[in-house]
């Protein structure tokens, strides 16, 4: 038991040390620390989606919508945008401890609102409807710049304040920003070690992720978590056991949405800029791929999947940029235009995501690092014969003669 | 008033053209769903491939000096349809067939994967930008009560009606159609009756893909262009149409497609007026989803579906 805790502590220490190491390596540097920060946000998103898909078995394809809600909420409440469009008196500067819980609560409410009408639907309908909701949210964000400019349309909102704590003014007159008491944007030192803003963000996100992992784990083994899994495996049986299907499913949606909302708010502060482009269907699919690749319902798997799929594209990009001139010079049998399309980093990335989804589902549906229970569930049918068992009333006619004889003897004994 | 009326007529005509394209795509979804209960997410990409291959073949033929004309177009469409059919067959054989008995989420996520994969593969082959559809047939506008419709749009409607009729004959009158219906009702029993289920399911995919290829070409001709992204949204809308009509029901898919086209076209034309300029035509894309959500809420079996919602 102690050993396990020691292992966890070591792992956490390794993750804390990681950005300092990466920062020190010359060809990685702060750019890569920044990527690690985004990776943490993706882990948070994937953990949230894991609750909805992995635990409760509800395929939510519009998950990025909650991320968008959290991000836009933070952006609106702590950037000069609403002041510039004349919708707010001063520059809004709501305190952190209000915005982030608010993002969580509003995302959860949206989760319930989106979940409520689709509860009766089965898995595949649910996927399409949630996908539709996700798109609707994005289309609204793209178009709500008129007649009243709320989201600034496709240009997005910029000038978003970083994560900080100040004296507590909820808004200030334009140009008179209050001094921050504590801000992740300032440098500080830890035992003589310089900690740059990107590293501070990373550490903060890491703390949130650890909290989310603990929360996920507690949820998984709780009464609610077990109820979700029962619903996932067999709704009818679960209901017969007295589980409240409606409330449980809504709770799963709300819980997942909460993670998404918080992650979105953090993303907004980290990036300092949000636009609808960050919340496309492709992002939803990317988070889905993370959960599926790692293993639906397995926390360690999902974390692994999120880390792989958020860091891999960046490696890819570097690799492609490095390979591209070389290939361009030497490959002559394919037209240059086609070659440029093939070596496009973002296309390659999505191609690999698609391929990952296909291969994982086809050959290893339990994911790379599944929880032992899920693995057992997905492979239990392998021991069964491929031919379905004959229905009960027909068994008698098909019994082998020897067994039939045996049965007759048994009957005779009685 | 008269001008308003002809605008209305114009919107209805546009809706009918759009709707007949949706209907053809929706048929592909509904046939596959009816027979194995899977939303073939990749069907939209097949439609896209149909359009792109046709454009490529036409460009190539023009390069060889073939005269543009209806025959050239038909030849190109045939090649595209064959490509799409082969793709659909491969997809069924290597991806969906081994997973036929797997939990429902597995083939669905696989289908999403195929869709993403094909979309990006198409982006590699044809690039990210638009491809314009070569003008192989001369476009002539026809005036109908103040509204205009081109000869191409008219042929889109006529051809899709003919195709739908042919499909109905196939499903209702032929041996293959009978086998398809039997398989849809109960695969195991159909197998016991001597029907080769694998072949029937494969045929369903292939027929759906050929309809999809034709629909893709129609969409490309109608807008004069096609791109690698077109399949996704078109597929989702067509799926909504299939659900609207009652998934698994052929006539439902046809009616749902045309109805959705009309709804979309009218809504796009009039939301501005109805909401006092608050919401404009840029919200056009959300109507399909709204319709889908409404149908699923209030009539999950669709307009013509008799099937129980949780059987299929």
| Beta-strand fraction estimate of chain B | under 5%
The biggest chain-chain interface is: A-B, 53 and 55 residues
CATH architecture of chain B: Orthogonal Bundle
Low-confidence stretches of chain B: 308-312
- Kindly provide the radius of gyration of chain A, computed on alpha-carbon positions and rounded to a whole number of angstroms: 26 Å
Mean pLDDT of chain B: 88
Average pLDDT score of chain A: 83
Whole-angstrom Rg of chain B: 20 Å
CATH topology tier name of chain B: ABC transporter involved in vitamin B12 uptake, BtuC
Q: Largest beta sheet of chain A: what is the strand line-up?
A: 1-4
Strand content of chain A: 5-15%
Distance between the termini of chain B: 48 Å
Structure description:
The complex is a heterodimer of chains A (414) and B (312). Chain A has 414 residues and is mainly alpha-helical. Chain A contains 17 helices and 8 strands. In chain A, the strands form 4 sheets. Chain A has a two-stranded antiparallel ribbon with strand order 1-4. A two-stranded antiparallel sheet of chain A has the order 2-8. The longest helix of chain A is centred in the C-terminal third of the chain and has 32 residues, at 299-330. By secondary structure, chain B is mainly alpha-helical. Chain B has one domain (2-298): ABC transporter involved in vitamin B12 uptake, BtuC (Orthogonal Bundle). Chain B has helices at 2-36, 43-63, 70-96, 105-126, 151-173, 175-185, 187-192, 197-223, 230-245, 250-274, 284-298, and strands at residues 131-132, 141-144, 147-150, 225-226. The longest helix of chain B is centred in the N-terminal third of the chain and has 35 residues, at 2-36.
